[in-house]
Design goal:
6 helices; binds manganese (II) ion; globular; alpha+beta; 5-stranded mixed β-sheet
Length: about 290
């Protein structure tokens, strides 16, 4: 099942290019969710609600995808995790910048086990319709296309062999970055710098997430191709590693790392993310409006 959020916080099921509105299910789930729960109520309720949601979707006429504004498929993750340096060729391209100043002086170990993963602010999350506002046009702002895992249930100390039991689904992510000397989570938490879309594909639709291809086009030109079989830490190991440090909750977002080919973006650019088993979306890069 492909689950999206669209327009004014509506929930939809996507089939054949159409969005079927199942917001009534979202309303009921949220009403029953305790305020102090950690994680996203809809993702947490999905195992219990899935067949009802599919039934509701079948009963309502669809709206063309082109007529809706897609939002992030998850409304309230408890955290947004991200793996750095998880493809060898990306490590090499960043190492080649060693003499260019900026991050070079503060470089962390490239091994995830030594460097750890990092967190992006949840307030940076946007969906495809919202655009990416650039606050620092004079600095190097770059795209990083990544396969993103959405956690499906609470878990801690999860062994990699059981990691797939904790996955609700997958989506595409852009881990946008301002390059510079500041702490990584600071530079990667600018509003709009955690793009998620076009929707979440439930885990049952992707038999092997460690063999998925994801591409990124900038203004129609292919810039990045990620093949998740090249991940240094595969998805099971990423989940195992994160859950040694913190409990994972339903709706938690996990960027799995970017391949080589990162390049600068500027206002006016259009990014297109695509993966056959998931889908595709376009997002516009624009200037930040001060004070907005
Ligand atoms: Mn990244």
């Amino acid at each position: 099942m492909k689950l999206c959020r669209f327009d004014q916080d509506r929930l939809g099921v996507v089939t054949g290019g159409k969005v079927h509105d199942v917001t009534a299910a979202q309303d009921e789930i949220r009403r029953a969710a305790p305020y102090d729960m950690k994680g996203d109520a809809v993702i947490a309720a999905l195992p219990a609600w899935r067949s009802r949601i599919e039934e509701m979707a079948r009963k309502v006429p669809g709206k063309a995808l082109s007529e809706v504004k897609l939002l992030s498929p998850v409304a309230r993750p408890s955290k947004t995790m991200a793996a750095p340096t998880n493809y060898k060729k990306h490590i090499a391209e960043m190492a080649a910048r060693r003499d260019s100043g900026g991050e070079a002086a503060k470089r962390l170990p490239s091994d995830i086990g030594a460097a750890g993963i990092f967190l992006k602010s949840n307030s940076a999350i946007v969906g495809p319709s919202e655009g990416i506002p650039i606050r620092f046009p004079d600095r190097r702002n770059e795209h990083e296309i990544e396969l993103v895992v959405v956690i499906g249930k609470q878990g801690s100390d999860i062994p990699r062999e059981r990691a797939k039991d904790y996955i609700a689904g997958y989506t595409l992510g852009l881990d946008m970055t301002v390059r510079g000397t500041e702490d990584r989570s600071f530079r990667k938490s600018v509003d709009g710098y955690a793009v998620l879309g076009p929707w979440m594909v439930t885990a049952d639709e992707i038999a092997n997430p460690d063999d998925v291809t994801v591409t990124l086009h900038l203004n129609g030109e292919l810039k990045q191709t990620a093949q998740t079989r090249d991940l240094i830490y595969d998805i099971g190991r990423l989940i195992e590693f994160a859950s040694l440090f913190y409990t994972l909750y339903p709706g938690d977002i996990y960027y799995t790392g970017t391949p080589h080919g990162v390049s600068p973006v500027k206002p006016g650019d259009v990014l297109r993310a695509k993966s056959d088993p998931i889908g595709e979306f376009e997002i516009k890069v624009r200037a930040h409006q001060p004070g907005a």
